[in-house]
Write a structure and sequence with these properties.
alpha+beta, DNA-binding, homodimer
Amino acid sequence: MFKPLDPLLHSQLRLAVMSLLISVEEAEFTFLKEKTESTAGNLSVQLDKLEKAGYLEIEKSFRGKRPLTTCKITKKGIQAFEAYVDNLKNYIQ
Amino acid sequence: MFKPLDPLLHSQLRLAVMSLLISVEEAEFTFLKEKTESTAGNLSVQLDKLEKAGYLEIEKSFRGKRPLTTCKITKKGIQAFEAYVDNLKNYIQ
DNA sequence: TAAATTGGTTTATATTGTAAACCTATTTAT
DNA sequence: ATAAATAGGTTTACAATATAAACCAATTTA
């Protein structure tokens, strides 16, 4: 009936990040920050967790002279997101 | 875009409880415990929070000689649940 | 050359979730 | 009659989590 909800995804900010990345495939740190209206610190921590879980890949580079952090959802991340949504439906329907 | 998710509802156990109460209107502690597969301690704490938020009413009585705790969702609880689900849809669609 | 801005990370703290321990009473077994 | 198990919870201690504040290094602007 109520299957457990992946704790990594059952978090407002991380879920928003995954939701964005599902649709855009790849996004910059600043883009995610704006869209989610989060603080940089909070976002940084949550991105780390998602990366450590293998739900996304984080690439650090430079754009001109500025650091640039780019995030991309992984196959595992997509699957986890879909499973989470499926399970969640049992709670909200 | 991503509206904040009511933290009181964005919790696996509390959401499961509300989900159950939405459909059955009224339920006993032990019923909720079984359906959610939670421990009594955890359930007790979470019910308290939902009651303090005015999302449900808790009535304590006796069935025969045994204590009986009955929970009923309130109008406010229903509204909060519906708002939560609406907001959540922005994250998972 | 000082101050502000960009693009973040680290860390300290407050909040939360959860299980373990506990409590009171009742029922069952010996 | 008494001990042990069960019912129906509550309280509390601890671990995990989320978040903002503080920080850092470099760049740009005044």
